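Example 3.2
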Amino acid sequence: MRWRVHGETAIYDSPWVGLRLADVELPDGRRFDHHVVRMPLPAAGVVVTGADGVLLLWRHRFVTDTWGWEIPAGRVEAGEDLAAGAAREVLEETGWQPGPLQPLTSYHPSNGLSDQTFHLFKADSATRVGPPTDWTESERVEWLPVERLRHEMQVGKVSDGLSLTALCWCLAFGHL
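Structure, written as tokens:
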């Protein structure tokens, strides 16, 4: 059943995120305010594979105060092609230029609260260009063999939703 939206009021806006209060009505007639997080731009992540395994970042996330392995990812700029934005993020964060990108899937990680959309890609190769230009993204960049990656996932060292979804997608459909 479809909910009816009567309007939306901005509570906070920045170039990165917007918080809204939506006036919604349920099919049974009940009406209430619902918080909605609006993301102004889509995000893209890339699983890069090669002879040495999967290219990952080891990084800290201050919001959850956790460390973990993540795929290279970031927001796609306004007017930028999704694949081009994904490739740019890989290069900036890792110093590796990914080979041709293959689209995997797109999804909404928290569609009950946010309109954020993640677009996943895969590259079967990458060429080392130099050090990451965005060195603040991670403590280190590493190629993890697939068996080590499986272990790291199993022991909770891959805990962000974007990376887990992308890596599980690749494992489930024979991309790793």
